[in-house]
Design a protein that fits this description.
This protein is of the alpha/beta class. 40% of the residues lie in helices and 23% in strands. Strand 7, helix 5 (191-196) and strand 8 form a beta-alpha-beta unit. The longest helix is centred in the N-terminal third of the chain and has 33 residues, at 49-81.
Length: 250
């Protein structure tokens, strides 16, 4: 039973969650997000939307300013090379037109937010893990969901929570394919399975539970879960983490 549910529909676009199984009657839903993160500076800090927005904004501003500077430099260079800027018989004029066209295209892309191409860890790895769990699933009361708007918001997750029953346990996988350790955040996990698979538990009472791979560092004296740029840009998936995820939900 596969359903694609649209929400926040607008004239030219709509957000979509993909549900597999009976979401309304499920006792447990395992999910992950499938949208693509935009480029940003710094590490990926889990559960800190403000830090993510700030790092993305800094990247957009610095990239836009660099493009504006290059555009200004290109304009000065062009003006110094030609006597008549509107001479369409000159190759410089056509080169300048192509350059300005490319400049404004790039500027529009960066101001809207440029999608990251390095999504192997975040969040292709979790999508693959969810597909593996789906293939091995033998529990009738378990459902699965691929949610939209998971990179910088919770709208897709809230839409899933709206359809699920109040007693349903929701678990979200995030970036589980990195070489960093696995963490289970929330409640209802088997302590025996966590111990057997060397998954660290951070017990928190909340509606949505999480399983992530992350490095723990101190930020302003507080423990913070994050993935560094090096960890995010891994070119190989951590197969051990996949095995542990499968074992955790068996």
């Amino acid at each position: 039973d596969v359903r694609v549910i649209e929400y926040d529909r607008q004239k030219k676009s709509a957000n979509r969650n993909v549900y597999i199984g009976n979401i309304e009657d499920a006792k447990e839903i395992i999910c992950t997000y499938y949208d693509t993160p935009t480029k940003s500076f710094g590490p990926y800090v889990f559960f800190d939307r403000e830090a993510q927005k700030r790092q993305t904004l800094i990247y957009l501003l610095s990239s836009s300013l660099l493009l504006v500077f290059l555009g200004f430099f290109f304009t000065l260079l062009y003006m110094n090379q030609v006597k008549n800027p509107f001479d369409f018989t000159s190759g410089w004029t056509w080169l300048a037109m192509a350059g300005f066209g490319g400049f404004f295209y790039l500027l529009s892309q960066y101001t809207k937010g440029k999608a990251s191409k390095k999504t192997f860890i975040r969040n292709t790895s979790s999508i693959l893990a969810l597909l593996m769990l789906l293939k091995k699933n033998n529990q009738e009361k378990r459902a699965f969901a691929f949610i939209d708007e998971g990179c910088y918001g919770n709208r897709g997750l809230k839409e899933l929570g709206r359809l699920a029953s109040k007693n349903c346990r929701i678990v979200l996988l995030d970036s589980i394919g990195s070489n960093a350790p696995l963490y289970a955040i929330g409640q209802g996990f088997s302590e025996m399975k966590l111990s057997q698979n060397a998954i660290q538990l951070k017990e928190v009472k909340q509606r949505v539970n999480y399983v992530i791979s992350a490095s723990e560092q101190l930020t302003k004296g507080q423990p913070t879960l994050l993935l560094t740029k090096k960890e995010l840009e891994q070119k190989q998936l951590n197969q051990e983490n996949f095995k542990k995820i499968i074992a955790l939900f068996e």
